[in-house]
Amino acid sequence: MNQERFDYRAGILASPLEVDAAEWNALLSRQAQPTPFLRHEFLSALHATKCAVADTGWAPQFVTLTDPRTGKLAAAAPVYAKGHSYGEYVFDWAWADAYKRNGLPYYPKLLCAVPFTPVQGTRLLAVDEHALRHLSATLVAFAEQADVSSLHVLFPTEREAQVLTDLGMMLREGVQFHWINDGYRDFDDFLSTLEQKKRKNIRAERRKVRDAGVTFRRMPGEDIGDADWRFFSKCYRQTYREHFSSPYLNLDFFRMIGESMPENLMMVIAEYEGKPIASSLVVYQRDGANAGGTLYGRYWGALEHVPCLHFETAYYQPLEFCIEQKLGVFEGGAQGEHKMARGFMPTVTRSTHWLAHPAFSDAVAHFLDNEKNHIHAYVDELREHNPFRE
User: Fold this and answer.
1) Residue 276: inside a domain, yes or no?
2) Name one Pfam family in it (predicted).
């Protein structure tokens, strides 16, 4: 039977636990830009530990397409009905405020994303192009028929964004800072490519930490014990406390991914006189198609203040790990021009958006056109002041 001549069976699931893990991960492995964050283990841990559930404003509405001939999953997407805009890193607070000022509800909205994770990569799992287009159309139709203000797909691949904009969604661009491994032999080899002032500053920052008597342990996921997870979680919570906010993730979540996907984790622990004082956790994935793979800087915290400890724990130690493991890219996470001084360069990210209200949709489209021009000018200016030697 020609695949173009049948319809998939669509499903809306109230939990990632309702989808077969092996089938989900098999779909993920077929994608051009898979990330560890879209693994069933990661998404199900968010749900099982009540980090991303209806009570926290993240009600799962996972969309699936099943092949009627085989009964197997042909496409799927992590979709949530959101009651707020926290934990997204593509900011639409101004849109929500405009709705409120006009007496219209902005929430709930539909969001296709990995909760609390500003990482670009596959969002629409599909066996082939036909399934991808069918899934995209299903997402838009779901939003049109649901009692929601809008649909947002955050950090999709370029191809996914193209398919979604072909269906009428609006494209939005943003900026992150990524480090590229140019085949460096070691950290000093990387430093040698930077301008003298940048190189000198990094060495001075590392020396301050070393002279303070701080030492470091880098542990692969398989070696992280429960005491390490408890200490790391304490550091993670401290970061949020310092910013007068509540942490999105809990100790049970970290324990769960530590058990289910240790091959994707690496923890850095900083110690002073044998006592742990700070920690960072990075997520990584080996990928021969991406010059060795990608490391994602994610979580960090410190219980004691030491000058430059953040840079050493969350940037320089992971950078050394990238070089040692021959990983091709280190994605530094959301925002942060300060990363440029440490060799991270601006990279354009994308998201797509559909708003049900015609007038607001037109207004947002105009806003996005202006924002896009500013983003491109901003990136061009940053690249003119890159930290590398001519």
Assistant:
1) yes
2) FemAB_like
